[in-house]
Amino acid sequence: MKKLHFETYRLGQVRTDIQETEPVVRNADLLSVDLSVVRQSDAPGNANATPNGLYGEEFCQILMYAGLSDKLSGLGLYEYNPDFDSNGQSADLYAQGIWYFLEGIGMRKMDLPLANPNNYTTYRVTMEEIEQEITFIKSMKTERWWIKLPTDNTKNRYVSQHLLPCSYKDYQQACNNEVPERWWNAVHKMV
Length: 191
Prior knowledge:
Blueprint: H1 11-16, H2 22-26, E1 30-34, H3 56-68, E2 74-78, H4 89-106, E3 120-127, E4 132-139, E5 145-149, E6 162-166, H5 168-175, H6 181-190
Parallel strand pairs: 1-2
Antiparallel strand pairs: 3-4, 4-5, 5-6
Helix pairs in contact: 3-4
């Protein structure tokens, strides 16, 4: 996955800062969630359940982020097996996750930066390592962040800019003259 420049997050990384999963799901068109991502004690209703995984609360938080995404149009929840589900606990967790997803949809702000530039602040950071300027855009309404990716208009004359959801942490990293991994991966995927 790293060689193909996809963003991957290990369980420890998600636990350390779950907010870093928000830009990933914000950029998704479709989200597919397998119940085995949740640890067995929180969701036993899966034949492949293991002792380690997300806590139920973390599962619900990520589904809330997914619901907040203006871009997401589909959610799939998979691998629930009632034969393994003691006391309907996994079914309850899925129901709670769906509730948080729907709550997120109800709180959508439609704050894509292309809609109204007056609601955004632009930050430019010059990166010495790559001899390039990286542009960050911050929504004044939701305080969410995007990175503007370089485009080659010769390939697609209808695309003037690509915006990649990111976090404040990515901006801070750039300010410390460290190329954000999220930007690096996206640029390499475009090549």
